[in-house]
């Protein structure tokens, strides 16, 4: 049978057998490659390979780690709540430890049953429980953790070597029979295998891996800064609830006192000891007290809603409450602004992120410079010529070739200039953030010192004195020795003193934790 009598000769020839065999191998190999490329644990980041010297930060071994520890107890939450997340840092590890996103997975699980919050709400959540709930359930933190997954995926991609190329080329396919009388062709089958070598010849893969590793470090620092901000927000929301609850208690106490005075006034009017206008006057105050109670109840509901939003919760028991006190057992002493600034520059994860971004921008610049080198692909081929129908034996031969781009015009100049600009921009961003950090620390220290002075100047003694004056004036009014205006003045003085006392305590705790957050570690408790 003549193999080339029709274009269907591929089905019965050795060429067809080779094509079928190669196609089968490719189809069987593709699913296996895909399975092997899947991450066994998508939460695992492993950058234990040594970072190239040109991209490793000075003084480090080329590996990085993040530490997120449970905050210690502090006085802010009834004696058991934490003051800040200590140990939250991203930096170089001198012992070459692995960076594992599983640490973040332990802190931020995929879901958590709302029943746990119901149990805590029955007796009130402490500050420590609020912080842990925020870390576990805040969807913003879980979304931020995905950036580390993406950076790890980029790192995995940078480590993959390029795929080889396999070309099947059929040439001189007959449109008519080729014979000795009517020669043509001869038909050829070319099988060419090529593999690029520029990725290791010019250091392209090493540069890409170094950039991707620094990308993981940047994403981890960004996540640590997100944790710092979200935990700071949850702590502020916790003290907002305590403040709103204290204000509601004050409003209720004030209303109860006004109603007592109203009852005394009605008795005096009944017995002729006071005019009827006094009833109208005190009744107006009672109505104002009732409105104040309603406003404070609304403020408490709003504060709890903000706290629940910071916890990432949508469904919660109506009896949800917090456990804690605004009392200040021992006022803390703030650090000096210069000392606080030095600690913030060392511990703030956003500063660490900007420093890593500078290193990554320099690594990206090296990546773009390696891309200026041409792509080089050597290849080897096998050729089979089918010419027996023309009176000559079939011939087999080998071929080798090198395909290289000639960087005559495009030497990646634009991307190199862009990478240089990005590196300059990253350095300027760090300078701007440091300037803002200095102002933020100075402001936070000044605000805390002012809040501390207010909290210590308006102490329990002044509050007890104002309450005593109110009670004695009310007793004198009951006995007929004091006027209603004197009682109202004493009530207003006590209410103003108590409100200032609550606000001073709340402001003390807010500014304390704000200063801790600005520094990036717990320095005040």
Descriptive tags:
alpha+beta, four-stranded antiparallel β-sheet, single chain, elongated, 2 domains, 525 residues, 8 strands, 13 helices, two-stranded antiparallel sheet, Outer membrane efflux proteins (OEP), 59% helix
Which class of the largest domain in CATH terms? Mainly Alpha
Instruction: Tell me the total number of β-strands.
Output: 8
| Rg measurement, Å | 38 Å
Strand content: 5-15%
> How many discrete structural domains?
2
Number of distinct helices: 13
Sequence of secondary-structure elements: HEEEEHHHHEEHHHHHEEHHH
Q: What portion of residues is helical?
A: 55-70%
As residue ranges, the low-confidence spans are 1-118
CATH architecture verdict of the largest domain: Up-down Bundle
CATH homologous superfamily of the largest domain, by name?
Outer membrane efflux proteins (OEP)
Largest sheet: 4 strands, antiparallel
What sort of overall outline do the alpha carbons produce when their principal axes are compared? elongated
Oligomer: single chain
Class per helix and strand makeup: alpha+beta
Ordered list of secondary-structure elements with their pairings:
Blueprint: H1 14-37, E1 64-67, E2 73-74, E3 81-82, E4 89-92, H2 102-107, H3 115-123, H4 127-137, H5 139-159, E5 165-171, E6 188-194, H6 198-201, H7 204-270, H8 277-311, H9 337-347, H10 349-370, E7 376-385, E8 395-404, H11 413-457, H12 460-479, H13 484-519
Antiparallel strand pairs: 1-4, 2-3, 5-6, 6-7, 7-8
Helix pairs in contact: 4-7, 5-7, 7-8, 7-10, 7-13, 9-11, 10-11, 11-13, 12-13
């Amino acid at each position: 049978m003549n193999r080339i009598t029709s274009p269907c000769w591929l089905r019965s020839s050795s060429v067809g057998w080779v094509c079928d065999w190669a196609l089968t191998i490719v189809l069987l190999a593709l699913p296996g490659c895909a399975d092997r490329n899947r991450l066994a644990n998508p939460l695992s980041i492993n950058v234990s390979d040594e970072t190239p010297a040109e991209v490793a930060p000075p003084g480090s071994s080329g590996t990085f780690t993040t530490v997120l520890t449970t905050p210690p107890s502090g006085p802010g939450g009834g004696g058991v709540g934490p003051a800040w997340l200590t140990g939250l840092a991203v930096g170089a590890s001198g012992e070459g430890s692995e960076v594992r996103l599983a640490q973040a997975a332990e802190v931020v699980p995929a879901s958590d049953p709302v029943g746990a919050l119901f149990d805590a709400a029955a007796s009130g959540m402490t500050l420590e429980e609020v912080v842990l709930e925020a870390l576990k359930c805040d969807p913003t933190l879980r979304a931020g953790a995905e950036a580390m997954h993406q950076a790890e995926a980029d790192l995995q991609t940078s480590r993959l070597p390029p795929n080889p190329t396999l070309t099947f080329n059929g040439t001189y396919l007959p449109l008519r029979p080729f014979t000795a009388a009517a020669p043509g062709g001869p038909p050829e089958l070319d099988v060419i295998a090529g593999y690029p070598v520029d990725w290791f010849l010019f250091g392209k893969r090493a540069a890409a891996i170094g950039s991707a590793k620094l990308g993981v470090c940047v994403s981890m620092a960004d996540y640590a800064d997100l944790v710092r901000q979200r935990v700071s927000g949850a702590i502020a929301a916790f003290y907002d609830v305590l403040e709103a609850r204290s204000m509601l208690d004050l409003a209720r106490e004030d209303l109860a006192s006004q109603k007592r005075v109203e009852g005394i006034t009605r008795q005096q009017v009944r017995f002729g000891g006071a005019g009827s206008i006094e009833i109208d006057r005190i009744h107006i105050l009672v109505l104002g007290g009732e409105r104040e109670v309603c406003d404070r109840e609304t403020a408490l509901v709003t504060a709890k809603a903000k706290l629940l939003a910071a916890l990432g919760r949508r469904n919660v028991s109506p009896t949800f409450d917090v456990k804690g006190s605004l009392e200040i057992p021992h006022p803390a002493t703030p650090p000096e602004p210069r000392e606080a600034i030095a600690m913030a520059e060392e511990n703030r994860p956003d500063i660490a992120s900007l420093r890593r971004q500078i290193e990554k921008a320099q690594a990206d610049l090296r990546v773009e410079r390696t891309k200026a080198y041409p792509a080089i692909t050597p290849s080897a081929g096998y050729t089979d010529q089918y010419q027996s129908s023309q009176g000559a034996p079939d011939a087999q031969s080998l071929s080798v070739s090198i395909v290289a781009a000639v960087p005559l015009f495009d030497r990646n100049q634009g991307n190199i200039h862009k990478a240089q600009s990005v590196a300059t921009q990253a350095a300027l961003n760090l300078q701007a953030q440091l300037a803002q950090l200095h102002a933020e620390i100075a402001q936070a220290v000044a605000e805390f010192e002012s809040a501390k002075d207010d909290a210590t100047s308006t102490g329990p003694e002044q509050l007890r004195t104002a309450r005593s004056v109110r009670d004695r004036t009310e007793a004198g009014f009951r006995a007929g020795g004091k006027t209603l205006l004197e009682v109202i003045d004493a009530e207003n003085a006590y209410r103003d003193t108590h409100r200032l006392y609550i606000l001073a305590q709340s402001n003390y705790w807010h500014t304390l934790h704000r200063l801790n957050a600005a520094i990036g570690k717990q320095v005040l408790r």
